[in-house]
Structures are given as structure tokens and as C-alpha cells.
């Protein structure tokens, strides 16, 4: 096999809670993850040279060690030596620095692709162990579907698939630093924590309406204060009949959950027509094994 192409799916956080800060500086989280049907395409090719090269369709992305796809090759090589050169081409469709795990999912796709290409035979668990060395979201990006994610993100428990719905992603034209958000999060007694167990219950009962009433992301307490546009998008999505509108990850993307295609399309058209550099993407939950 001289080349392989893997789809790298984006994720949203149906619920995101932060439980505390650990001595190593990481935070303990409790998050409900859901992959969405929006993907980058990662193509790995063997080359005659000894080097690793990364190319992408976006001129501003790093193509050296700072690219998580590059890091994934190094981590894989440390475990299962690769005896040839490789070129990784990433066709990015997932908005960058958006809270959608774009870099992590490319890294996961590289691990999956290399495992197949070199017939290394690593189990899902082994790949996840390599993945967490690249980033806390990489193990989930290998698993996909609907899952509870705990620890720093590496303790994963698949849960029943999210009830059928339509999802609108809207990313304002701003950058939010994940480091800034976590550094400014004050986990004092007055902060309200999202009810993750109740959200899981609602998913188990396939009750989209109850789930929507519970969806929350604790990091919004920081980002909305600093970037009011995130709060504005949330409100507008509600006006446009979203059952829930919540920020994904550390932002700035806001996603809306809709119970009909028509309502979701209507909201999509509204955000698309705004001349403000916002990105709007209409999508659906994605489950591995879907035929696409
Ligand atoms: P998360 O949701 O995991 O916090 P994110 O979606 O907010 O991630 P990314 O799209 O992964 O953020 O981008 C964050 C930074 O990572 C970017 O500024 C970019 O320079 C860097 N990066 C490294 N590799 C990649 C990649 N393959 N795709 C996108 N960004 C990458």
C-alpha cells in the first residue's frame, strides 16, 4: 500500500464540565462528545525520501512539528519504526481553532492510517494510548460517536447514540485561546456545573427535548464575558428555533440543535447572509459505521 486516505471528523461538546485543576496543570473534565458529519481528508503517501512532510490547503497552518498530524507520525514511529519517507496532505474543511478538535482529529486519522498502511496491528486501546501523548482529545477522535470523556479527556465511555437531530455550527471571526479560557476559569462555590449525568440519562431515553434543556458548557462563563458575540449567536439561534445553542470546547464555535431540517436551514440561511466573516455549516451527528 503506497497511499491511504482517511476522513477526520470534527466533534462538538454536548455538555462540558470542568471538575478541578490537577497538580500537573491539566484540568479534570467531564464532557459528552459527539462527532459531526464534517471532516478533513488526510492522505498519507510513501515517498522515496527519508523525511516527513506535511502539506495542507490552508497557507496559514503550520506544516512542521507544530502540526498535530506531524506529531502523530513521530509518536507512531517511536512505537513502530517507519522505514520510509512520508507525505501527509490535509485537506482542511473543519474551521481552525474553533473548538471542533480539528488538529486532534487529523492526528487521530494519521494514527489510524499508519496502522493500516504498515499493518502494525495496534488495537484501538493501543492507538488511544499513543493518541493521548499528542493531545487530550485525540483518543476520543479515534473512538468517535457519542461518548462520555473524563480524566483529561482520555477516559472514554461510549454511550447510546445522540437522538436524531440537525446541527448548525456558527464560528464568529475571532480566535479564542484555550489557555486563556482555562487560566481564567474560577471553580469556586458560586459557579454552576452542567448536569452531565442528567444529560446522559436524557440520551439513554432518546429524549432530545430534555437533553436540549440541559445542554451547557461551563467555559462559556469565561468566553461570553470576553467575547459577547458568542452570547449574541446563542441568542439568535434560539430566536431561530434552536432547541439548544451551546459553545463547543473553548469556543468560539456555537452549535445549535434543531428538530427539523427546515428550521436548521432557515437559521443557516440567516447566518450565511450576515456579512461578518462568520462561518456557518449545516451538519448532522456522525456515527462510525455510517455509510458515507
Ligand atoms: P480543540 O477543540 O481540541 O481545542 P480546536 O478545534 O480549538 O481544538 P484546532 O483546529 O485544533 O483547534 O487548532 C488549534 C491550533 O492548532 C491552530 O492554531 C493551529 O495552528 C494548530 N494546529 C496544529 N495542527 C493542526 C491541524 N492539523 N489542523 C488545525 N490546526 C492545527
Provide structural commentary.
The protein has about 290 residues and is an alpha+beta fold. It folds into two domains: about 5-160, Ribosomal Protein S5, domain 2 (2-Layer Sandwich), CATH 3.30.230.10; about 165-285, Alpha-Beta Plaits. Helices cover about 35% and strands about 30% of the residues. The protein contains ten helices and eleven strands. The strands form two sheets. Strands 1, 2, 3, 4, 5, 6 and 8 form a seven-stranded mixed β-sheet that branches. The longest helix has 16 residues, at about 100-115. It is globular and about 55 Å long. The protein starts with a strand and ends in a 9-residue tail after the last strand. The structure holds adenosine-5'-triphosphate (ATP).
pLDDT averaged over residues: 95
Tell me which ligands are bound: adenosine-5'-triphosphate
Total number of domains: 2
Low-confidence sequence ranges: none
Q: In what range is the share of β-strand residues?
A: 25-35%
Number of strands: 11
Please report the number of helical segments. Answer: 10
Along the chain, the helix and strand elements come as: EEEHEHHHEEEHHHEHHEEHE
Task: Write down the oligomeric state.
Answer: single chain
The CATH topology annotation of the largest domain reads as Ribosomal Protein S5, domain 2
The major sheet is characterized as: 7 strands, mixed
Topology, element by element:
Layout: E1 3-21, E2 27-47, E3 52-56, H1 68-79, E4 85-91, H2 102-117, H3 124-131, H4 138-143, E5 146-151, E6 155-158, E7 166-171, H5 178-184, H6 196-204, H7 208-214, E8 216-217, H8 220-226, H9 228-239, E9 244-247, E10 254-258, H10 261-273, E11 279-283
Parallel strand pairs: 1-8, 3-4
Antiparallel strand pairs: 1-2, 2-4, 2-5, 5-6, 7-10, 7-11, 9-10
Bound molecules: adenosine-5'-triphosphate.
The site of adenosine-5'-triphosphate has 21 residues, from helix 1 and helix 2.
Amino acid at each position: 500500500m503506497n497511499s491511504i486516505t482517511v476522513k477526520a471528523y470534527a466533534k462538538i461538546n454536548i455538555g462540558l464540565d470542568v471538575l478541578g485543576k490537577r497538580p500537573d496543570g491539566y484540568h479534570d473534565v467531564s464532557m459528552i462528545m459527539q462527532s459531526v458529519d464534517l471532516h478533513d481528508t488526510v492522505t498519507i503517501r510513501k515517498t522515496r525520501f527519508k523525511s516527513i512532510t506535511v502539506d495542507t490547503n490552508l497557507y496559514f497552518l503550520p506544516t512542521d512539528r507544530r502540526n498535530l498530524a506531524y506529531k502523530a507520525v513521530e509518536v507512531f514511529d517511536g512505537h513502530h519504526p517507519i522505514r520510509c519517507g512520508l507525505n501527509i496532505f490535509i485537506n482542511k474543511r473543519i474551521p481552525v481553532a474553533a473548538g471542533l478538535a480539528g488538529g486532534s482529529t487529523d492526528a487521530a486519522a494519521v494514527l489510524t492510517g499508519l496502522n493500516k498502511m504498515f499493518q502494525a496491528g495496534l488495537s484501538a486501546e493501543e492507538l488511544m494510548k499513543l493518541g493521548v501523548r499528542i493531545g487530550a482529545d485525540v483518543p476520543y477522535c479515534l473512538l468517535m460517536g457519542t461518548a462520555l470523556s473524563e480524566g483529561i479527556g482520555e477516559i472514554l465511555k461510549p454511550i447510546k447514540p445522540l437522538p436524531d437531530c440537525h446541527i448548525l455550527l456558527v464560528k464568529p471571526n475571532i480566535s479564542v485561546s484555550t489557555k486563556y479560557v482555562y487560566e481564567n476559569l474560577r471553580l469556586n462555590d458560586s459557579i454552576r456545573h452542567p448536569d452531565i449525568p442528567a444529560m446522559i440519562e436524557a440520551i439513554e431515553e432518546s429524549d432530545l427535548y430534555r437533553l436540549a434543556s440541559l445542554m451547557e458548557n461551563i467555559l462559556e462563563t469565561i468566553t461570553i464575558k470576553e467575547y459577547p458575540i458568542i452570547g449574541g449567536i446563542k441568542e439568535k439561534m434560539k430566536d431561530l428555533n434552536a432547541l439548544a445553542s451551546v459553545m463547543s470546547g473553548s469556543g468560539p464555535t456555537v452549535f445549535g440543535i434543531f428538530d427539523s431540517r427546515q428550521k436548521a436551514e432557515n437559521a443557516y440561511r440567516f447566518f450565511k447572509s450576515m456579512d461578518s466573516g462568520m462561518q456557518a455549516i449545516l451538519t448532522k451527528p456522525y456515527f462510525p459505521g455510517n455509510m458515507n
